[in-house]
Amino acid sequence: MTEQKINEPTDDVPKGKAGIGHNSGFTPRIQMVPLAKIEIWLPAQEQADDVLPDVIEEEVGILAEAGQRAPVPARRRSDGRIEVVASAHVVTAVSRYIELNPERRDGVEVRVFERLDDAAAYRLLAQQIEPAYAASSLARGQFYMRAVEQFGNEAEAAKACRTSKASVSKNLDVVRACAIVGDKVLIPRDIAQRPASWLMGVVGRDPDGSDAPDQAARSTVLAALDHLDVAPASRIFAALRAATKTKTPRRARSVLSHGGREIGRVRHKKDGAIRIDLDDLGDTELEIVVDLIREKLASALQASSF
Question: In this structure, are strands 82-84 and 38-40 parallel, antiparallel, or unpaired?
Answer without folding.
Answer: parallel
